[in-house]
Amino acid sequence: MNAVAESRPPESRIDRRFQALKAEGRAGLITFITAGDPDPAACQTLLDGLPAAGADLIELGVPFTDPMADGPSIQASSLRALNAGMTVRKTLSLVTKFREKDGETPIILMGYYNPIYAYGVDRFLVDAKASGVDGLIIVDLPPEEDGELCVPAIRAGINFIRLTTPTTDEKRLPAVLQNTSGFLYYVSIAGITGTASAANTAVDAAVARLKRNSDLPVAVGFGIKTPAQAAEVARVADAVVVGSAIVSRLADGLDETGALSPGLVEDVLGFVRELAEGVRTARG
Amino acid sequence: MTRPNTYRSGPDEQGHFGIFGGRYVAETLMPLILDVEKAYREARADPAFEGEMLRQLKQYVGRPNPLYFAERLTEKLGGAKIYFKREELNHTGAHKINNCIGQILLARRMGKTRIIAETGAGQHGVATATVCALYNMPCVIYMGETDIARQAPNVFRMKLLGAEVRAVTSGAKTLKDAMNEALRDWVTNVADTFYIIGTAAGPHPYPTIVRDFQSVIGTEVKTQMQEQEGRLPDSLIACVGGGSNAIGLFHPFLDDPSVAMIAVEAAGRGLDKGPLDHAASINGGRPGVLHGNRTYLLQDEDGQILEGHSISAGLDYPGVGPEHAWLNDVGRVTYAAATDAEALEAFQLCAQTEGIIPALESAHALAEVIKRAPTLPKDHLMVLCLSGRGDKDIFSVAQHLGVSL
Asked: Judging by DSSP bridges, how do beta strands B193-195 and B114-119 pair with one another?
């Protein structure tokens, strides 16, 4: 199942975006939002506004009732989205509409396996590719289960991006790197999203170790909340992932009924602009 | 599906029982899960580990517990000869302690210094808090806020035993959410923490570990029935939520073709009422992936997990152990279901005919006994796993019967 020959799909939007970032000599900003949060229409507006606000790549969370690796803010955002009627099919529709205006910014779906399994893996891959999805990050599919989705995704021309963590030791790293493409996502803390932040020195060493073992770009995420923290990580990483902080900014601005208040999408995009500014000036 | 040569060889190297089982967990947990597997294999090969476990099961838990001939119930139902495997007589009042003794010994062997667990009805939480007191280890129990309200006596028991009970307020605030929260804790504290999973589910090797530690139930039944009746039983009946007492009773008998096995799921308000009204994952769910394994799950079209319902907090879980999912598909075990009302009736009948107040979980299995025993000949030997005692349930039973205490 883990044939090396299958480990990379043809050059993708993700590859091209990282090549462009390298040419510019800067790190990229990867922003995470949950599909359908707080409702499908508002989410579409937010999603469509991300590239202009400075997001270089976009992670779109596929909501799930039981997000075991996520902290309170992404748990809450998943529930808001599900309560607003979000589904896998509607998530793909968000991407289709986004692609009508933007053919360059990579979109990576991030989530858990069961909604995809329920949709049907083969059908999902066909529909995801057609809608303009470039990559998948599926938290509960380690290399041991590559036959489920990873290998079929590569065959369908979709990058399968793996998380590496502080617990991924030397012995395990080759298995994690195999079949990974697009970029490597280094989870900088052993924990759930949106909680603690890692020490910078530990991140530096971990990124250096991954770079010694792989030629893929390395993105760093989990626990990065402010433009200053993003800038700090952007010195050493090829990209910085910010998720919970963006999702919290959105949640904090919802009115008491959980509905969008005027100017909220602009406010969240303003925060993304600050993060992008931090990332872009990090190596200046 | 072709009939395998043995039903007892699973799981395979990757932790699969047929298409079920596996290791669907975040990367942070994978190295740890591989360590648990290795440590478990070594422990089982170490006579010192077996020795300590057997000593505790005998002297602390009180095993072997009796295989009791339920004479009055047998007479009343007028058919099969009914035996109760008295797991409710174990220290802490349920089968859960069998597994907790084994897992805490494994945790100590691995050098872990902190224990976490999830609990629904509180039985596994009490058993875990108990072994943590016994071995002087700090213990955090995750319990849904809804369950905390339903199971106040067990919450207090856990606290008395020195455990910290953390209320889970995410999702539906019941067992599945408690398991999510325990997994979140584990991912954050991988270095020093051992997760004692209470049911025969979760990522490989947990379904195997729990099954093996609970198999003492079936192994004792085999010996005791031989002593008392000189032969194998004809049928075995147990309730199944995650399914740890059922797999423990069944596993030693899987390759004895004359022994019929019936597991009883919680049909809640009725299987025909829809997926939100029962907790019968096999009878009313379909395969999916949750909490580290593929198994039958209560879920909607989009793969979102549904909150089941049962009068019994211990059966109120939207999944089932992966080995049960497989045993269902290969046809070795029959998966029946009992409603809240049937369980309540069985609960009262057991109390009045045998002087035993069963757990509401066990009362589901008893409801199946009540349906089957009258149709069977008097020489049919039927074993019910009386998995727990019902003291914890008297408040909710009173409420359902319209009695105020």
From this structure: parallel
Other C-beta atoms within 10 Å of A235: how many?
15
Considering only the beta carbons, identify the residue of A65, A113, A168 that sits closest to B304: A65
Cβ pair B301, A62 in contact under 8 A: no
| CA distances in angstroms from B324 to B20, B118, B263, listed in the order given | 9, 21, 9
Report the candidate in B308, B303, B397, B390 with the shortest Cα–Cα distance to residue B344.
Answer: B397
Q: B25 contacts in A (CB within 8 Å)?
A: 140, 142
Each domain of chain B, given as residue ranges in start order, spans 16-58+96-210, 64-93+215-400
H helices present in A164-241, as ranges: 173-177, 200-213, 227-234
How many distinct helices (H) and strands (E) make up chain B?
16, 14
Helix, strand counts (H, E) of chain A: 12, 9
Top residue of B304, B305, B306, B317 to mutate, by most chain A CBs within 10 Å, is B304
B16-58+96-210 to CATH, choices 3.30.470.20, 3.10.580.10, 3.40.50.1100, 3.40.50.12160: 3.40.50.1100
To the query of whether residue A59 is one of the catalytic residues in this protein, the response is: yes
A68 CB neighbours in chain B (<8 A) are 26, 180, 183-184, 187, 291
Q: Which residues contact B48 (CB under 8 A, 6 or more apart)?
A: none
Q: Are A13 and A187 in contact (CB under 8 A)?
A: no
pLDDT tens sequence across B65-83: 999 999 999 999 999 999 9
Reduced DSSP (H G I as helix, E B as strand, rest coil) percent helix, strand, coil of chain A, to 5: 50, 15, 40
Exposure on the CB side of residue B43, measured as CA atoms within 13 A: 24
Q: Rounded distance, CA B403 to CA B346, Å?
A: 18
Architecture, CATH, for domain B64-93+215-400:
3-Layer(aba) Sandwich (3.40)
A135: distance to nearest CA of chain B, Å?
18
Which residues have CB under 8 Å from A250's CB, separation 6+?
A33, A37, A38, A46, A77, A264, A268
Mean pLDDT, rounded, for B305-313: 90
The mean per-residue pLDDT over the stretch A75-92 comes to: 97
Please tell me which residue of chain B has the smallest CA distance to A169: B31
pLDDT in tens, B89-103: 999 999 999 999 999
pTM of the predicted model over 0.90? yes
How far apart CA A278 and CA A27 sit, in angstroms, is: 10
CB spacing of A118 vs B32 below 8 angstroms: no
Residue B304 and residue B310 in contact, taking contact as beta carbons nearer than 8 Å: no
Question: What value of ipTM does the predicted structure carry?
Answer: 0.94
Please report how many Cα atoms fall inside a 13 Å half-sphere around the Cα of residue B142, on the Cβ side.
Answer: 25
Neighbours of A12 (CB within 10 A): 18
